[in-house]
Design goal:
The protein has 391 residues and is α/β, with parallel strands linked by helices. It has two domains: 248 residues, Type I PLP-dependent aspartate aminotransferase-like (Major domain) (Aspartate Aminotransferase, domain 2, 3-Layer(aba) Sandwich); 134 residues, Alpha-Beta Complex (Aspartate Aminotransferase, domain 1), CATH 3.90.1150.10. It is built from 14 helices and twelve strands. The strands form two sheets. A seven-stranded mixed β-sheet has the order 1-7-6-5-4-2-3, sandwiched between helices. It is globular, with a radius of gyration of 21 Å. The relative contact order is 0.13.
Amino acid sequence: MTDWKTRTKLVHEGIRRSQYGEMAEAIFLTQGFVYPTAEAAEARFLSAGDDEFIYARYGNPTTRMFEDRIAAIEGTEDAFACASGMAAINGALTSLVKAGDHIVAARQMFGSCLHILKVLQGFGVEVTLVDGTKLDAWQAAMRPETKICFFESVSNPGLEVIDIAGVAAIAHAQGAVVVVDNVFSSPIYSNAVAQGADVIVYSTTKHIDGGGRALGGVVCGTKDYIRGPLETYLKHTGGAMSPFHAWIMLSGMQTLDLRVRAQAANAEAVARAVEGHAQIARTIYPGLASHPQHALAMAQMGSGGTMVCLDLKGGKEAAFRFLNALEIVKISNNLGDAKSIATHPTTTTHKNLSEEERAVIGITPGLVRISLGIEDGSDLVADISHALDMI
């Protein structure tokens, strides 16, 4: 039902009920399926219908419910659920290129995404990293053999906002595919398809689960792509999501809109409360007028998102004092959780980058990434303000 609003789709879209008419989504915890005859098995392997399944690595009723639901809210024709966010990124990129092809990618992104690009280079794919915020850099990097333009719509961890429509215009003029890691935007603030993205990837471990319970990822796109090269690659390389994890994601999606909007409100409240604090060199939040891409963020997402970064003047020592003084906000390396989480990228998520590589993408020893949860906003402001005062 395309005229349903997002919250309604998040609760009802994609339901596949068994003969028992269960209210909650059922977990079909099976790796295989039974065929009534040998002829039926032959026919299934020749051409499986939309509600026919062969093996859990290829698809499963619970997993298909999740895929249908995320595709409905993202506005794509189809989706493929993966074992993790990185399995989704790997599948989205690797299924589209071969040796001799060229990828242009933003240099500002999660360390594991950069690692996958290095792996592809080892197999003969050429990669050019650019400052993703500069459209002229994208244009200058394009070649006749460019197949993919790849970036995080909001970068991890520096919260730089990339112009999806601008990059898409450049990529499509060259015949390249736009692959967007949209995890920081979340499906709630995503207009990536309307803005020109061809393939949208999420780590469902983050906002979609929202409870820190399970790994997952998903790739959204056209049916021809999802059930063509992507499914072919993933079903043979084993990156499929388990039915149990799909059931967890379906459960998380029911409250996704409510949670993400509450998280974004808390992020804005914290950013505004601490901006200008004596211990902070930079408060980074796309919802603040001081953010370099503030206008773009408002036009592209309509929100500053759920993440805030604080660049502390005292470097690593100050960052550790701040982290250790937090009471409500927990130290971890996840994000998008209902619980607020603080991360020190230099020593955790981006530790494998060289000091020079971190400097290029704005990761300083004093940078702390905070994912705001759904706790009371005034409590979070008090906790973070107190920790800053304790530095």
